[in-house]
Amino acid sequence: MSAPAEGFWADVPFGPGVRRVACDANGLAALDKPEGILSHPNGPLDEDRSLVRARYDREGECFEWPGPDGETRRLWLINRLDSATSGLILAAADEALAREVRSRFRRRGVRKIYQALVFGKPRQASETWRDVLAVRKEGGRIRAAAGAGNLPAESRMTLVRTGSGATRVSMILLEPSTGRSHQLRVQCASRGLPIVGDRTYGDFAANRGFAKGGGAKRMFLHSLEIGFEYSLGGREHPFSARAPLPPEFESLG
């Protein structure tokens, strides 16, 4: 497999604010997705607020757009984030590469670290959270609940610091070893540590108070770091990336 030319990346019609923060010679890229941007469009009307402003082939799990030479260009999506979550999301310029990296995700061979701002303070500075989740679709939207299903969910939580303001908020790191839908949001909320700005599982009154106090109106969950190795061409290739923490996270009082 030959590496994609740099011109390939220059031609990708990335969505608003999307940046490429890492890329290797095989065509694997880490993108930094802003809050509010979709991992992929659900239809043509969503393309302008998607990771890539292009048609998305759901079966092939790839974006498609015409290149300057009239040939179809493709970029394969590897993982997804909720639109309200910012940070790292992976894509590949080659289908076989995308399949290999997706298989690493399925085998839990990927280390992921998220940073979150939550209401309250964890009981301990470091904990391993283990739950069973129920995940269902309601009106086309995913909803999850802890203790009501049979999907194991595990995450490691580490306290970074706790603010001293009237509304107590804490900065935490979350390292999930499973990848259930809405896992981190539900695990935080079920422990009395709802993520600031979470409009589904959060503390709605506290969210309003935080916004009135000058806090940004967003969900404070960010995919911060990722690291793993993948096999290609008979060799193991290490890959790692980090997406800088958005400035609004630094306003912890």
Account of the protein in words:
With 253 residues, the protein is mainly beta. It has two domains: 6-107 and 228-247, Alpha-Beta Plaits (2-Layer Sandwich); 113-215, Pseudouridine synthase, CATH 3.30.2350. Helix content is 14%, strand content 40%. It is built from four helices and 13 strands. Strands 1, 2, 3, 4, 5, 6, 7, 8, 9, 10, 11, 12 and 13 form a 13-stranded mixed β-sheet that branches. Strand 3 (55-57) and strand 4 form a beta hairpin. The N and C termini lie far apart (50 Å). The mean pLDDT is 92.
Provide the descriptors you would attach to this structure in a database record.
single chain; 253 residues; mainly beta; Alpha-Beta Plaits; Pseudouridine synthase; 2 domains; 14% helix
Mean pLDDT: 92
- Helix coverage percent of residues? 10-25%
Radius of gyration, in angstroms, nearest whole number = 19 Å
Given as residue ranges, the uncertain stretches (5+ residues, pLDDT < 50) are: none
Tell me how many strands there are.
13
Give the domain tally. 2
Ends distance: 50 Å
Q: In CATH, what is the class of the largest domain? A: Alpha Beta
- Global outline: globular
